[in-house]
Amino acid sequence: MTTLGAAVADARTRFSAAGLPDAAIEARLLIGGLLGLSGIEVFTGGERLLTEEETVRIEKAVGRRLKREPVHRILGSREFHGMDLLISRETLEPRPDTEILVECMAPHVRQIVADKGSARLLDLGTGTGAIILALLKECPEAQGIGSDISEDALQTAGRNAARLGLADRFRAVSSRWFDAISGRFDIIMSNPPYIRTDVIPALEPEVRDFDPLVALDGGPDGLDAYRAIAAGAGDFLEKDGVIGVEIGFDQKETVVAIFRAAGFKLAQARRDYGDNDRVLVFTVDES
Q: Both 254 and 187 in a single domain?
């Protein structure tokens, strides 16, 4: 038998030897997640004896991480905006930078609710449902649709909505952008695929080999999704509605130009925690 502390130390050593960054943090996060322990419980519970079943589970998980599978994919969930969200094979991991899109859209949702009494949201390429579910959680008067082309993603988003008690205000719809969408929305938002096709082979293995390609590949110049969203949004956005999109670090000017050509004006731009352009917010240009 081995102890929790010995298992964490062994994982840390093996991760470090493999050149993985943050080996100590990842060892505690992975093993704590597998055993349902908080970071403090892992830190203070080093003398705890592990069962044979726990030891086998940890060994399998460590082996998967050494093959560069991300920790949260191994655990099957990740925290986002105070929610524990399930992750599946065809969904991206919700990442902290995407919380900036939620932060940008939340005031607009609240203002629309104050003006109208309710708000209707559309999340294009919803994946885990992270963005729209975070907004629904913050605004009980809002309801909305999360669309995706992946049935796996739609099922995952639906399960996350149910786990969070939001299923009565969220609907998952199979649609490529606006193809199967009807009605009008106060808020349209998306974290679309925006990586250039030729860049994908050079991505870190954790992204290239484990994130779904369809959620990464934005076409030859990385802008295919923005063209589709800008071209279709006018038919689905309320007159006083708002569009919010996440972008790549070098895409601000080109994405602004795409939306401007489609009749929208830039209302807000936000940078991420690394000081890169990350979120753009548009409204209808009535000039």
A: yes
The amino acid at residue 120 is R
Q: How far apart are CA 7 and CA 88, in angstroms?
A: 27
Q: Which domain holds residue 16?
A: 4-75
- The pLDDT of residue 63 is 98
Residue-level pLDDT at 287: 80
Residue 83 placed within a domain: no
State whether 70 and 98 are in the same domain: no
Gap between the Cα atoms of 13 and 27, Å rounded: 9
d(CA 25, CA 32): 10
> Once rounded to an integer, what is the mean pLDDT over residues 85-104?
97
Count of domains for the chain: 2
Q: Do 12 and 66 contact (CB within 8 A), yes or no?
A: no
- Domain annotation covers residue 124: yes
Q: CATH code at 151?
A: 3.40.50.150
Domain co-membership, 97 together with 174: yes
pLDDT score of 252: 98
* Res 212: pLDDT: 97
CATH number at residue 9: 1.10.8.10
**pLDDT reported for residue 1:** 83
Residues in the chain: 287
